[in-house]
């Protein structure tokens, strides 16, 4: 069975973008692949985090994976910092990365822009991400499309290492979902929906109450055409809502255009809100059942154990190939 790896940062409450761009795919993929889903807390600390908030976010994110339908009998769910091989291989991958290529990463440019105290880890974030993926002989990485640049770099680093030392790493393929790969801000629909947006109205969080979701969608920025038509360039707001509706139902974008011909934005927005609530409500109910459970801890303990077993094997091979440590 081929292996899938993906990670989400516990850097804030999870958004509808994270769900539609990543987590929803995870649930489908666990049926056919050996899946590793990782809460990448070591990535989250590349920017300042509050200790207690971080702890809560980690647990919330773990519970949301399970509530969304990740089955611990099919997939391995674990926390990055509980598997030390990640930072160990991360260091090794740093030795294979060039400062120039890291400085070219758009996520680094965005997150460091205008700041005078930027951690060096924000720059070396991609080699750690490469390590996450390469430790598990991953063949496929499902992500939203903001991560494709990091994944291209992961592929380059794997090939660079394999050519220089020994053919150890599987070079992973990128898997971006067809619809939902880039959910945009509700207030500035040319920007991606983000966990860290200061404007609360711009983002739907997975744990937002139904009334709040409805309110946010009703006040989403659209345009004055009154036509429900997919045109990202000229109608980014409406196109984003159409993408959300398509991702939350079985409707295609064409079917949505047809369905809303001659119907105003009022009804359209109401239907988008209903579809989002219908998608998130069952997840929220299940979330509240498991967030404080011992079961959640047991699953994470077991996940870290299993992940460590596989990760340590790959790490040992990489160390040996480079001549680190002693021969045993
Ligand atoms: P993160 O935590 O920012 O996002 C987690 C996943 O959600 C996707 N995503 C979106 N998809 C659609 N629309 C959006 N508005 C949106 N916002 C986020 C992301 O593409 C991602 O798939 N570097 C990664 C975390 C990571 C990782 C990994 C991912 C660390 N190691 C190894 C894959 C494999 C990140 O910051 O994702």
From TrEMBL:
Chief location: cytoplasm
Motif residue range(s): 'HIGH' region: 10-18
Q: Name one Pfam family in it.
A: tRNA-synt_1b
Reaction equation(s) it catalyzes: tRNA(Trp) + L-tryptophan + ATP = L-tryptophyl-tRNA(Trp) + AMP + diphosphate + H(+)
Residues reported in the UniProt entry to bind L-tryptophan = 132
UniProt motif 'KMSKS' region: location: 192-196
Q: Does the keyword Metal-binding apply?
A: no
PROSITE patterns documented for this protein:
AA_TRNA_LIGASE_I (PS00178)
E.C. numbers: 6.1.1.2
Q: Which family does it belong to?
A: Belongs to the class-I aminoacyl-tRNA synthetase family.
Function field = Catalyzes the attachment of tryptophan to tRNA(Trp).
This protein's name = Tryptophan--tRNA ligase
Annotated organism of origin: Amphibacillus indicireducens
Instruction: Give the gene that encodes this protein.
Output: trpS
């Amino acid at each position: 069975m081929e292996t899938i790896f993906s990670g989400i940062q516990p850097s804030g409450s999870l958004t509808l973008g994270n769900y539609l761009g990543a987590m929803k795919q995870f649930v489908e993929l666990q049926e056919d692949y050996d899946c590793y889903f990782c809460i990448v807390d070591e990535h989250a600390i590349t920017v300042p985090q509050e200790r207690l908030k971080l702890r809560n976010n980690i647990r919330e994110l773990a519970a949301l994976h399970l509530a969304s339908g990740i089955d611990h009998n099919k997939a391995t769910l674990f926390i990055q910092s509980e598997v030390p091989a990640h930072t160990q291989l991360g260091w090794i991958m740093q030795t294979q990365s060039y400062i120039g290529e890291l400085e070219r990463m758009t996520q680094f440019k965005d997150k460091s822009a205008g700041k005078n105290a930027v951690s060096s880890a924000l720059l070396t974030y991609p080699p750690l991400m490469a390590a996450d993926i390469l430790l598990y002989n991953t063949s496929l990485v499902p992500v939203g499309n903001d991560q494709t640049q990091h994944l291209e770099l992961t592929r380059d680093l794997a090939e660079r290492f394999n050519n220089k030392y020994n053919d150890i790493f599987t070079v992973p393929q990128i898997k971006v979902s067809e619809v939902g790969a880039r959910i945009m801000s509700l207030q500035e629909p040319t920007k991606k929906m983000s966990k860290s947006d200061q404007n609360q109205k711009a983002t739907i969080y997975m744990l937002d109450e139904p009334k709040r979701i409805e309110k946010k969608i009703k006040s989403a920025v659209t345009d004055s055409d009154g036509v429900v038509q997919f045109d990202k360039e000229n109608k980014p707001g409406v196109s984003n809502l159409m993408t959300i509706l398509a991702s939350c139902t079985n409707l295609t974008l064409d079917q949505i255009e047809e369905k809303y011909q001659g119907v105003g934005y009022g009804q359209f927005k109401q239907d988008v809100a209903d579809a989002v609530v219908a998608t998130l409500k069952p997840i929220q109910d299940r979330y509240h059942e498991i967030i404080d459970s011992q079961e959640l801890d047991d699953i994470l303990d077991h996940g870290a154990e299993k992940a460590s077993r596989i990760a340590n094997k790959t790490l040992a091979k990489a160390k040996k190939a480079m001549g680190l440590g002693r021969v045993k």
